[in-house]
Structure formats: C-alpha cells, structure tokens
Design goal:
Helix content is 78%, strand content 0%. It has six helices and no strands. Helix 2 runs antiparallel to helix 3.
Length: 182
C-alpha cells in the first residue's frame, strides 16, 4: 500500500494538514451517516405502512423504492468516506506523525462521532414518543400506522412485527429485482 500512497497527493501533506483533512472527512462521514439513518427510518416507516394497508399500494411501493435507491447511494458514499478516513489515518501512521496509541484515539473519536449520530436519531425518535404520550398513537384500532408518527424503537418492542416487516422488504427487493431483469 505504500506504493499506492506514493501516488497520492496526501503523501506530501504535513501533520496539521492531514489532521485537518481527517476532521473534514469525519464530518462528511457523520453527515452522510445521519442522512443514511434518516432515510432508513423513513423506509422502515413506509414498510410499516405497507404492512398495514389492506391492498397493495403502488404509491407506497414507489416511495419505498426511491428510498431504497437513495440508501444504496448513501451506503456507497459512506464506505468511500470510511476508506478516505482510513487512508488518512494510515498515511499519518506510516509517516510517523502519530503512534499506535494516537491512531487508536483517532479511531475511538470516529466511533464516538458515529455513536453520537445514532443517539441523535434516537433522541428525535423519543421526541416522537412524547407526542404519542400526549394522546397520539402509532397504531389505530385497525392496526394502521399514523402517517406522522413512527417509532424506530418499535423494532425492538415488537420482534414478530419486525420479522414480518423484514419479510415484506425482502419480497419487495425480489419483486423489483425481477422487474428490473425483465
């Protein structure tokens, strides 16, 4: 990999420049991860709605498909930025700007940033729970989902429902994979 690094322009960066580049890349990575989790939450909400509709809804399936395509693109971006962050850290280590302990600290900071993004998503979800506590309900008597409310924590609360949702998602993936081939 050192021959690969020789061809990169970051190989000529100073420690301060690499560190600044690392921070910028981590910010971009966390922003993309936040968007990814937000879209995933929306996609799960659409799947819940689809699960409780009496007949098949093309509009909801199309919405799910759009979200799925966006998630695929965000996942690619996420891994690209993760690769960039890894290359920056590797370069800093190879050039002896940081030692193994500092490398672990950078990696821990990255994990903390990712955990922070996840907690933000859960906090947003808990604020939705507060709305439910004030008289709203996720499910009405017909077991249909309210359009505005979706509790991502219900994934853990109702494991059998979650299995049904994941089966629905798998069937939609297979359906649109088949349609794409035809």
């Amino acid at each position: 990999m050192s021959s690969y690094l020789d061809n990169l322009s970051i190989n000529n960066y100073t420690h301060a420049e690499l560190y600044e580049l690392w921070e910028t890349s981590v910010e971009e990575l966390t922003l993309i991860y936040y968007n990814y989790l937000s879209y995933r939450k929306q996609q799960l909400a659409v799947l819940y709605k689809l699960q409780f509709t009496v007949k098949s809804s093309r509009r909801l399936e199309y919405q799910w498909l759009q979200l799925r395509n966006r998630l695929i693109n965000l996942n690619v971006e996420l891994w690209e930025y993760r690769k960039i962050v890894n290359i920056i850290m590797y370069t800093m280590k190879c050039k002896r700007y940081i030692n193994s302990i500092e490398l672990r600290q950078l990696n821990c900071r990255l994990v903390q940033e990712i955990n922070h993004v996840e907690s933000i998503i859960l906090i947003e979800d808990e604020s939705d729970d507060q709305e439910e506590a004030n008289g709203y309900s996720s499910y009405n008597n017909n077991k249909e989902m309210d359009d505005d409310l979706f509790d991502i924590q219900s994934i853990h609360k109702y494991p059998s429902l979650t299995k049904r949702i994941m089966k629905l998602e798998t069937s939609l993936i297979m359906k649109y994979r088949y349609v794409k081939k035809v």
